[in-house]
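FAQ

Q: What does a record look like?
A: Structure on top, sequence underneath. For example:
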């Protein structure tokens, strides 16, 4: 299981970027998203997405005691920071772990997190973004397979198309389900209609 803990969220200015951290956690293979400090607006947005597009996250939660959350995490703690070790030097080892907590920060991350982490991991040693860092970390962890994880339930599914947008109701999406190497119908009834191998 992989959980993402977003720390240092500032409700007055980080709503959008923190929501993006949550959406990336969801879309890129995490099983849980935990926000600190609590901000119901962000959690609500993520729950809405899960309701509409299907369940990928088993847990959406928050904590006002993030250090305690990390200290009581019963597994491996990974902290994403530009000061850490190159992702490629540690990712194979991290992939062997059962329960992984991935911490991403906001402005300045307190020193204790660097010490509590089993792995301080850098996605390149330049400053960029928690959204980019999380996406690349999860993509390396899963070797790209996370993009094809299928949600459970929800209301809508996208049928990948070359042009335009094709969205169907759950239950009407046909056999391919958007799996890699399988192309569903093209938009606007053009050539190649139907499922191709
Ligand atoms: N100077 C800040 C620090 O203390 O690391 C950078 C803050 S950055 C705006 C917010 C978060 O993005 C960081 O806490 C870290 O989780 C993530 N991040 C930014 N650049 C990163 C990098 N090169 N590698 C890994 N994580 C990064």
């Amino acid at each position: 299981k992989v959980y993402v803990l977003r720390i240092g969220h500032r409700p007055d200015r980080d709503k959008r970027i923190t929501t993006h951290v949550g959406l990336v956690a969801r879309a890129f293979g995490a099983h849980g998203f935990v926000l600190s400090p609590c901000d119901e607006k962000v959690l609500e947005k993520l729950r809405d997405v899960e309701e509409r597009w299907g369940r990928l996250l088993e847990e959406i939660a928050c904590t006002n005691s993030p250090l305690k959350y990390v200290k009581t995490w019963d597994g491996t703690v990974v902290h994403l920071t530009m000061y850490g070790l190159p992702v490629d030097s540690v990712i194979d080892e991290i992939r062997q772990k059962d329960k992984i907590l991935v911490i991403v920060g906001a402005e300045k991350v307190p020193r204790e997190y660097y010490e509590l982490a089993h792995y301080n991991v850098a996605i390149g040693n330049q400053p960029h973004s928690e959204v980019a860092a999380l996406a690349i970390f999860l993509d390396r962890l899963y070797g790209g397979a996370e993009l094809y994880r299928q949600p459970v339930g929800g209301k809508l599914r996208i049928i990948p198309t070359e042009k335009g947008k094709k969205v169907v109701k759950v239950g009407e999406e046909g056999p391919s389900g958007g799996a890699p190497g399988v192309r569903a119908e093209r938009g606007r009834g053009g050539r190649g209609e139907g499922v191709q191998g």
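Q: Is there anything notable about this one?
A: The first strand starts at residue 2 and ends at 6.
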